[in-house]
Amino acid sequence: MNSQFAADVDAGLSKSSKTLPSKYFYDKKGDELFMQIMALPEYYLTRAELEIFTEQTPLLIDALGMNKSQHFELIEMGAGDGSKTKFLLKGLLDQGYDFDYLPIDISGNVLEHLVETLQPELLSLSIKAQQGDYFEILKTLKDSHAPKVVLFLGSNIGNQSDEQAAAFMYSLGENLAPGDRVVLGADLIKPVDVVLPAYNDSQGVTKAFNLNLLTRINRELSGDFDVSQFEHAPEYTEEEGIAKSFIQSKVDQTVTIGAIGQTYSFKAGEKVHVEISRKYNKKVLAGILKDTDFNLVNTLKDSKAYYGDFILER
Ligand code: AVJ
């Protein structure tokens, strides 16, 4: 695990345009900072999707296309704390749907916490937590032959390039049957004055979130990054529709990473690309789905049309 981290860091910092993978943001401190990000006034994404789940619950339920007399499985990839999903689950129970809720997460702790918060609030809910890799679990679930709805929320798809997202959706389709549905939550393309502040908040939480990656390298890989000599530098254009985060060196400097046994030099102003947050519209989505069997059957947006939950049918 740590050697994979070392290999990924070495590969990224050895490129002529340096990169570091955003998946390593999420250590304990990173998880905490991401929770703070979700509560920021500038970070509209979480509130916008929550608004869809609270204000449009009946529409969302209809869009799932499930039959009340037919048992189905509601699967969530990366459920987190379930704070949005809870409203959908409650609505389905109130309307008398017959379903199991199957949250999937790599982290057993996350699942444990989710069950402990959800079950007391929704006593009649059948929760079947699944710990592991999304696609490995989905493969095992294929045998049940129950109709399925898969939730992939939070604009988590946005951290993937369009090529990666297309491969991801293709794999998802392979693990579902015709008629199954997906709720794909995605931030929408809109002007820079709304998007960029979400990745460059006035309190500097996003800056701390990104720079925490250097602190993690120092701690876990015996690096000697002087974090104060790096800046947080996000970019976005509406034309491209992709928020990009860079860690920028303030000065000419070298950094040694003990666990790799390498020294890397940074020029003043040099940028390390750490994250993309892809924004969506129907055209972007169509490109990603073009080699899959998914059709877009409905789109729910928040009242400002900042954010979309795309309902896909296989
Ligand atoms: C968790 C991937 C949806 O890209 O908006 C937030 C991560 N990065 N601020 C996003 C993130 C910086 C977030 N996602």
The gross shape turns out to be globular
Number of helices: 11
Strand content: 15-25%
The succession of helices and strands, N to C, reads HHHHEHEHEEHEHEHHEEEEEHEE
Provide the residue-averaged pLDDT. Answer: 96
Helix content: 25-40%
Q: Give the biggest beta sheet.
A: 8 strands, mixed
Spell out which ligands are present: N,N,N-trimethyl-histidine
Q: Please compute the radius of gyration using only Cα atoms.
A: 21 Å
Structural class: alpha/beta
Low-confidence stretches at least 5 residues in length (pLDDT < 50)? none
DSSP strand tally: 13
Spatial gap, N to C terminus? 35 Å
Written overview of the protein:
By secondary structure, the chain is α/β, with parallel strands linked by helices. The protein is built from eleven helices and 13 strands. The chain has helices spanning 2-14, 28-38, 44-55, 57-63, 85-94, 108-121, 134-141, 162-174, 192-198, 205-221, 282-289; strands at residues 72-77, 99-105, 126-127, 130-131, 148-152, 181-187, 230-235, 242-249, 253-257, 262-266, 271-278, 295-301, 307-313. The strands form three sheets. Strands 1, 2, 3, 4, 5, 6, 12 and 13 form an eight-stranded mixed beta sheet that branches. Strands 7-8-11 form a three-stranded antiparallel beta sheet, covered by helices on one side. A two-stranded antiparallel ribbon has the order 9-10. Helix 4 crosses helix 5. The longest helix is centred in the C-terminal third of the chain and has 17 residues, at 205-221. It is globular, with a radius of gyration of 21 Å. It binds N,N,N-trimethyl-histidine.
